[in-house]
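Re-running Prohormone-4 to confirm reproducibility after the cluster update. Everything else is unchanged from the original entry.
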Amino acid sequence: MFFYPHLRLSGCIDPSEPFQCPQSEKCIALQFICDGHPGDCPGNLDENEETCIAAKRPAKENIEKFLQAEYALHGTKLFTFLFGHKLSRSIEENKPFWFDTLASAFSGNQLTVMINYRLVNC
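Result of re-run:
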């Protein structure tokens, strides 16, 4: 049987250090997440792959707003290009469901690359 010390994760209070290190009460500034320098968080957990992916991922809400804006500008053209005619028709029939679903599914995937490219090149 293993006993783990009780660790109270209280959240970060100082707005200049809003990121709470995983499995710790320590808080750090966002600029120190995945900066390549060990020692910011205990066990260097601010440098692990999962944390780095999450830190670089746009918020789901931002992706959903992007999808809605693209739809307003171009109709189903973007979705037809990305997913084909069949799924594009389904998106047309149930936009709220699909915008939410796509934003959740692609918030850390290839769509993020496409969104970032589109935002930079607009």
